Amino acid sequence: MARESIYKRYKPSHNPHHNNAGPAYWFVFQLNKLLIDTNNPINIPFTKNLGKLKISPIRTQYIGTLDQHPCYSAEVIPKTDAPEGMVFKDLRQSYDDLDEDVYLLAGRAVQIVNWDSNHQFCGKCGTATETKVDEMVKLCPECGFSSHTRLSPAVITAIVKDGKLLMAKHNNAPNNRYGLIAGFVEAGETLEEAVLRETLEEVGLSIKDIEYFGSQPWPFPNSLMIAFTAKYDSGEIMVDGEEIAHAKWFSPDELPDIPSRISIAGELIDWYKKKYKKNFP
Ligand SMILES: [Zn+2]
């Protein structure tokens, strides 16, 4: 994977006990919109408390340190006005405003905000939950039921046959765009089994030589994308016409509109082009 770990700059923690002095970075969310402060070098509000920005959060969560500064996530009500010189911006559209580490940390923050908001009460007995101090876990004091942050793993695969890449058009894809074969992992499956099943379901093909490529958190709303490469084994392309409208093999020179560079799909396609396109830079 091209990107370096965010943990070079970021130290995760749930307990602010030794780190509550000095200003902090605030990842403030209004639904899925992040508060961007362009007056600040990393474009995230940097202040000791949100009161100084006249913001009253519903809830806040300590999420660790970035470059030794404490970081908090926070949720505000939808009608909250952005302070002067700042703007609430859809997280997915904020990629160009933030450096990659900060963007990834914002993705972690929004998932913690949503998890905290959605687990205020026990999903089993309805009692108000308590948050564990040293762990991202909500505990029910009544029945002991525990809730971790929700993650939905999904697999995405670059499948190659005779130097061509398989791409499919989902009926609900934006701008009629072709994409790689992808889908959520189901209970009881290994990742490789999910890759095999999704490929068979979506395009009717059998594949082989499935190899791990890399992974990427995808906080829209709570996926973890796990990417693979694979080779065609047998079968003819057959789509259901409902979920998948069309699928075909593309040579490196006739690739359709490809997903944006923020996604691991983009990295898989770059991997394919490097390997199969002559004179690729
Ligand atoms: Zn309970």
Could you explain how this protein is built, in words?
It is a single chain. The chain has 3 domains: 6-118, Nucleoside Triphosphate Pyrophosphohydrolase (Alpha-Beta Complex); 120-149, no CATH class; 152-276, Nucleoside Triphosphate Pyrophosphohydrolase (Alpha-Beta Complex). Strands 1, 2, 3, 4, 5, 6 and 7 form a 7-stranded mixed beta sheet that branches. By secondary structure, it is of the alpha+beta class. The protein has 3 helices and 17 strands. Helices cover 16% and strands 36% of the residues. The protein has helices spanning 100-118, 191-203, 264-276, and strands at residues 10-12, 24-30, 33-37, 46-47, 59-66, 69-75, 86-90, 130-131, 137-139, 146-148, 152-161, 164-170, 178-179, 181-184, 206-218, 223-234, 244-250. The mean pLDDT is 92. 31% of the residues are buried. The structure holds zinc ion.
Layout of strands and helices, then pairs:
Layout: E1 10-12, E2 24-30, E3 33-37, E4 46-47, E5 59-66, E6 69-75, E7 86-90, H1 100-118, E8 130-131, E9 137-139, E10 146-148, E11 152-161, E12 164-170, E13 178-179, E14 181-184, H2 191-203, E15 206-218, E16 223-234, E17 244-250, H3 264-276
Parallel strand pairs: 2-6, 11-16
Antiparallel strand pairs: 1-5, 2-3, 2-4, 3-7, 5-6, 8-9, 9-10, 11-12, 11-14, 12-13, 12-17, 15-16
This protein binds zinc ion.
The site of zinc ion has 8 residues, from loops.
N- and C-termini, Cα separation: 18 Å
- The total domain count is 3
**What is the architecture of the largest domain at the second tier of CATH?**
Alpha-Beta Complex
Order of helices and strands: EEEEEEEHEEEEEEEHEEEH
In one word, what is the shape?
globular
